[in-house]
């Protein structure tokens, strides 16, 4: 008789256990114009937290321009009132894995002319 009561209770306990959430990844596009000689925020800021089951911050940013030298692609993390570069690339993509926080994607155009750009940011949120 005790087994008949214990088995359903055990089944309920196992079924009510919390399952960890999967990390939700957001992919968003951005585009615009890059003035010459100026660092420009092209995406963000955005916050990455543990609220949705992510183990840490993972950011992948990619961009293409209308020609000439590739602009510098920069992933930055907010530290107080300032921004610190955590990943930089002179190619078409930059990636970063690290701690939770607030981030943004910036680009620097070292050419003397305005450039058009388009890109995609993907991050766990």
Structural description of this entry:
This protein has about 120 residues and is mainly beta. The chain has one domain: Mitogen Ypm (Jelly Rolls, Sandwich), CATH 2.60.120. Helix content is about 10%, strand content about 55%. The protein is built from one helix and eight strands; from the N terminus they run H-E-E-E-E-E-E-E-E. The strands form two sheets. Strands 1-8-3-6 form a four-stranded antiparallel sheet, with no helix packed on it. A four-stranded antiparallel sheet has the order 2-7-4-5, with no helix packed on it. The longest helix is centred in the N-terminal third of the chain and has 14 residues. The protein starts with a helix and ends with a strand.
Roughly how many Å apart are the termini? 49 Å
Q: At the first level of CATH, what is the class?
A: Mainly Beta
Unreliable spans are 14-20
**Radius of gyration using CA atoms only:** 22 Å
Strand order of the largest sheet: 1-8-3-6
Architecture blueprint of SSEs:
Layout: H1 2-15, E1 25-34, E2 39-48, E3 57-65, E4 72-79, E5 82-89, E6 93-98, E7 101-108, E8 115-124
Antiparallel strand pairs: 1-8, 2-7, 3-6, 3-8, 4-5, 4-7
């Amino acid at each position: 008789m005790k087994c008949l009561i214990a088995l359903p209770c055990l089944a309920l306990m196992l079924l009510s256990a919390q399952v960890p959430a999967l990390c939700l990844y957001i992919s968003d596009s951005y585009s615009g114009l890059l003035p010459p000689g100026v660092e420009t925020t092209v995406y963000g800021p955005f916050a990455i937290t543990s609220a949705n089951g992510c183990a840490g911050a993972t950011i992948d940013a990619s961009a293409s321009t209308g020609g000439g030298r590739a602009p510098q692609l920069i992933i930055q993390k907010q530290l107080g009132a300032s921004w610190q570069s955590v990943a930089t690339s002179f190619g078409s993509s930059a990636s970063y894995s690290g701690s939770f926080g607030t981030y943004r994607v910036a680009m620097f155009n070292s050419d003397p002319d305005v450039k058009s750009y388009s890109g995609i940011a993907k991050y766990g949120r």
